Amino acid sequence: MRTHVLSVRTGAEPCVVDITDEVARFVAGQGDGLVNVFVPHATAGIAVIETGAGSDDDLLTAIDDVLPTDNRWRHRHGSPGHGRDHVLPAFIPPHATLPVIGGRVALGTWQSICLVDPNGDNPTRQVRLSFLPG
Questions:
Q1: Has residue 121 got a pLDDT over 90?
Q2: Where are the alpha helices (DSSP H) in the chain?
Q3: Percentage helix, strand, coil, to 5, in the chain?
Q4: Which of 38, 42, 56, 83 could be disulfide-bonded to 75 (CB atoms 3.0-4.6 Å)?
């Protein structure tokens, strides 16, 4: 198994960061297998979605609709409404495992691998990539 850790700057606002190119570089020339993308943080997730046509912004809007940043959350440290960020991984898991065929991630035409980070309290995230040969 081969691994690599990406450091991704997410900033102070909720965001969706496309990491497809970094994952593609990691698996290039590796042959067939699986790549696991994992974010070891309690307030971020990994999504396979379309980006660039508004879907990434729609995802952030949907997170706000389903998990609003208000005072309903029992988990209260950090910025106001931060408790919702700790619930996020139940909706957007902290991992995705994808097929790699001939050293290329086998994504659909409009699919991208994205780090989803609603938590502005942590401006930098780590993403662990693991390649499992087939």
A1: no
A2: 20-27, 55-66, 83-87
A3: 20, 35, 45
A4: 83
Indicate the pLDDT class of residue 75, thresholds 50, 70 and 90: confident
Q: Report pTM.
A: 0.95
**What are residue 80's phi and psi, to 5 degrees?**
-55, 135
Burial of 129 (0-12, 13-18, 19+ CB in 10 A): buried
Indicate the CATH number for domain 2-133.
2.60.120.460
Longest dimension (CA), the chain: 49
| Helices and strands (H, E) in the chain, number of each type | 3, 8
What are the residue ranges spanned by the domains of the chain?
2-133
pLDDT of residue 31 exceeding 90, the answer is yes
Mean pLDDT, the chain, rounded, equals 95
Half-sphere exposure of residue 130, counting CA atoms within 13 Å on the CB side?
10
Report CA torsion sign: 74, 77, 78, 80: positive
